Amino acid sequence: MHYFILAVLLFLSLTLETTVFDLFTFYGAKPDFLLILVLFYALFRGSIAGAKIGFIFGLAEDLLLGRFVGLNAATKMLIGYLAGFGERKLFKDNLILPLLVVFIGSILSHLIYIFFFSLVSGLNQFILFRQFALPLAAYNSLMGFIIYKPFSKYMTREFTSHRFK
Amino acid sequence: MKRRRINPKVVAFVAVLVLSLVLAFFTGWNRPWLTKPEALWQDLLAPLESGVTTITQAGKDFFEGFTKYNRTKEENLLLQKQVEELTGELYLLEEYRLENLRLRSLVNFEASFVDQRELLAAKVIGRNPSNWRKTFTINKGRIHGLQEGMAVVTTKGVVGRIGILGERSAEVLLILDHEGALGGMVQNTRFPGIVEGTGDDKIPLQMVQLPYDSLVREDDIIVTSGLGGIFPKGLPIGYVINIIPESNGLMKKAQLLPFVDFDRIEEVLIVLPEKGEE
């Protein structure tokens, strides 16, 4: 059931990103729902789980794009791993810290992506960093604010049901 | 001395990370093929995207109906006046067209591409999910006769080319993308150059590698040069808004605004190859 819901979230995120949110860009940036989900998931389940879901979600995105397959997978995997260090350190009912994680995570993932992209393509795209980083981080944080409550509720329920089964 | 144990999970993590990047390196530029799972994945999402896009568009149209009523009314009056003027002009143009045809047959001139090429209409059903690449997905694919590299246009100008091909959907690589560079030329002086995407939203296109003394001015119209074989010759791309020297002092580049409003494209036309060309 848990994996089914994650798959639905993956589908939903990709569909929303390719359709609805193309109409609602913020300074040219659109929210990266997959990244937000990876960050939150890592906060609840730790580094290894964060890296796993980051890799799978990133790969799904890569396969859809069809070029540089593995780039998003590597980026999201690394960012999921890093965000996992926040597990247990955060009070999950407090909204400020997860949003801070989304904000910093967005900027960091943007930077990692451009770094990896330069590595595999030989192109310098750091100009995009200056252009997108802040609007992207702000937009992601806003979306994170909306997603966090229901996500946290679901994850807590999942966790307890696993434990006491 | 006790050796420090390395966590096997960390080793696996680093290995997967490096493998991903290696994979990315080899799937980077100009992939001639698309693997089965990728095509399947793309086709799987296409109907969902199509549905959501239809609903979103309907919602947008519905609300725009209210917000734009007054503007529409004014526009309507203006347009009616224009229709009258243009109808008159049309008769004149029809005369010219017929005259042109007669003269062209006299000098045995090649017809313009629109007469020769067949066009296929397609709906834009999805945009690129990432912030980095400039592509979108259309609802036509291999079974509709599409091939990789076919030119995609609207009535306003060049849009891009077919990139990755699925069975029932295809990705269009926009000319705004850094991979979507194409050959262009200044319409009136026929001066050639390469038009490429800048990645910047405000000035999305630039024409590079122009010699310092080349005849390019602001407001010049840039059309496709037909070099490279993908785009037919003479399709409008955009117009020059600014000319700046390159850092080496020998070249200059022209900043362009495209004729096509890429944020608002809903339908595109795919230029099918000339009959017998394939």
Helix run count of chain A? 6
String of helices and strands of chain B:
HHHHEEEEEEEEEEEE
Question: Count of helical segments of chain B?
Answer: 4
Mean model confidence by pLDDT of chain B: 81
What does this protein look like?
The complex is a heterodimer of chains A (165) and B (278). Chain A is mostly helical and 165 residues long. Helix content of chain A is 76%, strand content 0%. Chain A has six helices and no strands. The longest helix of chain A is centred in the C-terminal third of the chain and has 38 residues, at 126-163. The mean pLDDT of chain A is 84. Chain B is built from four helices and twelve strands. In chain B, the strands form two sheets. Chain B has a six-stranded antiparallel beta barrel with strand order 1-2-5-4-3-12. Chain B has a six-stranded antiparallel β-barrel with strand order 6-7-8-11-10-9. In chain B, a hairpin with a 4-residue loop joins β4 and β5 (170-174). Chain B is globular and about 90 Å long. Chain B starts with 7 loop residues before the first helix and ends in a 7-residue tail after the last strand. Chains A and B meet through α1, α3, α4, α5 and α6 of A and α1, α2 and β1 of B.
